Amino acid sequence: MDGFVDAALSSSVVKRNESRKKRGMLLNDKVLSVWSKLPDDDEVMEEEELVVKVTDAATTNAEGEGEAVDSSLSVVAPEVQAASEFLSAVVDARVMVRLDTSGLVFDSDNGNHVLSDESVATELAVQRATECVLQLLAAKAGCITLVGRCNKEESLQPLASALMESLDRPVRFVETDQEAIGICVEFEEKRRVKEEARVAREAKQEEKRRVAEIKRQARVEAGKEEDEEEEEEEEDDEDEEDDEDEDDEEGTCPVIVLENRSWFPCEKLSYREELDEFAEEEDIDERNSEMDTYASTLSKLCDVLVNDDVVGSSTNDVTVCSLKIGKSIVGVGPRLQHEMTVLRQLIQDTPRPAFGVVGGNNVKDKLNVLSLLIEMMDEIMLGVHLSPMFERVRRERWYAVNPKEEVVVVEVASEDNSEDTSEDT
Question: What is the pTM of this model?
Answer without folding.
Answer: 0.67
